[in-house]
Amino acid sequence: MSGSTSSRTRYALALDLVDDAEKIAAYEKAHERIWPEVRDHLRSQGVLEMEIYRLGTRLFMLMEVDPQAYRAEAMAAASKANPVIEKWEALMWTYQVPTPWTPAGEKWVPMARIFSLRAQPE
Questions:
Q1: Paired strand residues for 97
Q2: Domain range 3-100, its CATH number among 2.40.10.10, 3.30.70.1090, 3.40.190.10, 3.20.20.70
Q3: What is the rounded radius of gyration, in angstroms, for the C-alpha atoms of the chain?
Q4: Of 119, 94, 13, which is closest to residue 59 (Cα–Cα)?
Q5: Which pLDDT score, from 0 to 100, does residue 6 have?
Q6: Is 119 helix (H, G, I), strand (E, B) or coil?
Q7: d(CA 34, CA 39)
Q8: What is the structure's pLDDT at 2?
Q9: pTM check: above 0.70
Q10: Distances, alpha carbon 51 to alpha carbons 26, 43, 94, 121, in Å
Q11: 112: Cβ–Cβ under 8 A, 6 or more apart, which residues?
C-alpha cells in the first residue's frame, strides 16, 4: 500500500510481461477495452480507479479503492467464484510472468513506497 486518505486507499503493484512483442501488443490491446464483466467485477469490489503503466516488460498498477468496501481476500474469492473472471485471468496469465520477487502462486505484488513529497517537512 502506498498511501491513503479517508475516502480512498492507493495500492502500487508490479508484475512482468512475457518478453515477446506480439504478446505485449496483445496484452495492451486487451486493455483498450476490458470485458464489461471484468470492469463490473472491479467496481463491485470497491475499486474506484485502476491504471496500468508499462516500461519494457515491467508493469506498474496504481489502484485506488474505497477502504470501506475493498478487501483483497474477498476480491480474490469473488474472482475464483466467477467463471468469466477466471477466464479473463487465465487469458492474462498467457501474457504475464511473475517478477523475480513475486512469491510462488502470486501474481500482482505490492510495491513498497519509499518516497512521498507530501510527507516531506516544509
A1: 16
A2: 3.30.70.1090
A3: 15
A4: 13
A5: 60
A6: coil
A7: 7
A8: 56
A9: yes
A10: 17, 14, 20, 29
A11: none
Question: Which burial class, exposed, middle or buried, applies to 42 when counting CB atoms under 10 A from its CB (0-12, 13-18, 19+)?
Answer: buried
Residue 4 has what pLDDT? 54
Which DSSP category does 103 fall into? Answer: P
Would you call 59 exposed, middle or buried from its count of C-beta atoms within 10 A (0-12, 13-18, 19+)?
Answer: buried
Angle at 61 between CA 77 and CA 86, to 5 degrees: 30
Containing 86, the helix (H) or strand (E) segment is helix 83-93
Q: DSSP characters for 33-82?
A: S--HHHHHHHHHTTEEEEEEEEETTEEEEEEEE-TTT--HHHHHHHHHT-
Q: In this structure, what C-alpha cell is assigned to residue 72?
A: 483483497
In this prediction, the residues of the chain whose per-residue pLDDT falls under 50 are none
Pairwise CA distance, residues 17 & 26, whole Å? 11
User: Which amino acid, one-letter code, is at 66?
Assistant: D
All structural domains of the chain with their residue ranges: 3-100
